[in-house]
Amino acid sequence: EDQVTQSPEALRLQEGESSSLNCSYTVSGLRGLFWYRQDPGKGPEFLFTLYSAGEEKEKERLKATLTKKESFLHITAPKPEDSATYLCAVISNQAGTALIFGKGTTLSVSS
Amino acid sequence: KAGVTQTPRYLIKTRGQQVTLSCSPISGHRSVSWYQQTPGQGLQFLFEYFSETQRNKGNFPGRFSGRQFSNSRSEMNVSTLELGDSALYLCASTLSGADYGYTFGSGTRLTVV
Q1: String of b and e for A1-27 (b: at least 16 CB within 10 Å)?
Q2: What is residue B97's predicted lDDT score, i.e. its pLDDT?
Q3: Per-residue pLDDT for B90 more than 70?
Q4: B33 Cβ under 8 Å from any chain A Cβ
Q5: pLDDT of A6-24, one tens digit each?
Q6: Taking CB atoms and an 8 Å limit, are B107 and A87 in contact across chains?
């Protein structure tokens, strides 16, 4: 069965304090890994898609990387507006068109 | 361009009742998926529709059903509501397949009392 595990569950950072969020996965035939950001009371907002090991993507203060077993979301010099829940999801040969989500990491950045 | 629109935003229902939620995908998107989000289980896949046909289904009881219309708009229905059905129900759309990622709506918050 496909599984996605995110760690840590919660992370508190000071403004400017860089860190990384982890997403480890066990799937039968990875077709894609997605990172989303979710603010309270809203739907997930798409950030990145990664398709193969070694791939990296960047957007402002965020950088996502992918290996054969896990993905990292690196946050460089975060600001309070980066506070949100970050969700990792995969699609696989087994799950077909269904996104399999991790439980998320809730990031709080204080000034 | 307009995003994914879900109505209503909030809903309160009584146990045993049924409910219908609506989703209008991004114009041109033919695939619509539904997810249930709860604090304990996180986001879980309900079903996916493409060109009016259910293409994939998650592990939910038959009380949960859906349909898609010719204009790609979709509805999901939950019959005989239980307290555990209280959740944020999210709709997501994509052009054709999951490989390119989904765009999510803001969801419908269902509370069953």
Answers
A1: ebebebeeeebebeeeeeeebebbbeb
A2: 67
A3: yes
A4: yes
A5: 999 999 999 999 999 999 9
A6: no
